[in-house]
Fold this protein.
Amino acid sequence: MFLAIRELKHAKWRFTMIGMILVLISWLVFILSGLGNGLSSLSAATFKNMDAQYVAFEKGARHSMSRSVVSENLVSEMKAQEHVEDAAPMGSHVAVVLKEGNEADSEKIDVSILGVDPGSFLEPKIIEGQSLTEAENYEVIVNNSLIEKGIKIGDTLEIEGTTETLKVIGFVEGETFNHLPAIFISIDQWRSIHFAAPGSDMGVELPVNAIMLQGDGIDLDKLNDVMNGVEVATKKEAINGIPGYTAENGTIMMMLGFLLVISAFVIGVFFYVLTLQKANQFGVMKAIGANNRFLAKAIVSQITLLASVSIGIGVLLTYGTTAIFPSGMPFALDPMLVLTYAVVLLVVSVFSSLISVRKITKIDPLQAIGRVE
């Protein structure tokens, strides 16, 4: 470590430039991870937040709420199955709402209207106002992002294309679905909105999009055999079934993967070139008694120290950058995710130093001294 620190101080401008490259790479990795996490939350936050482990869709719906229609009557049958602790129906509907009294197109808001049973485990915790009730006047609780759109408790929202209106009675936090802010309403009132067109319920009695299940160790094959016309999936499979979710995350993960590979290549090449330039110095050190292990530790310590400082600066820059991002930008930094990528970057940096270490072990002291002469 002493040799590593001494060299870092001696050639500080050279290592500062290498450090700057590491800072920029780590900054970009953290920004991309925050963007990926933000898009993921925007697409499936409601599914991720719900306290359910399995989702029952219509058979052949490919785990998609928009393709599935099942009967709410199945809830009682589901509850009777082995290891199923609770079950609740859910429905989704994409709509455009406008605050009563507003007329401009720019004030229209795209939302996901989600039908749940009031008081069930699917109803999210409110942060302001009151919870859902069975009242018949279309009372709803909405995601708090609508506050930025000027929506407040007591407001009435008109649903474009219908004569129905929604009364806001509470706010929830971090609830989005299909990239849209979520509005929760009782399942009966959701049904009257979603299946308003004659015949749209396809003759299904009390239609809903899916039934959420609580329980551990549910045998999916056995449950699928018992429940005709229904396909039960894990929550993870249901999240992957949300349109666009897998493609978005796959793209971000591919970019992060390429970025990590590129960073390993860049760091490895930089230190390999430095090692080549110092080959005669390493040879002299070997000639006076330094062994390969000592020199390898010096190189690895040097890269670990430089990478740690650079990654730390990258983290600070990332958190600083979030302060200037627009509020509507889908960006969410998860501290655990930041820590994970920081460790991955550090490991990649250390592994990239192994090329230099291998070069050092092959340096012949006599040949190196000869170069000096």
Observations:
- The two ends are 29 Å apart (CA to CA).
- The chain has two domains: 1-44+246-370, 54-217.
- The mean pLDDT is 86.
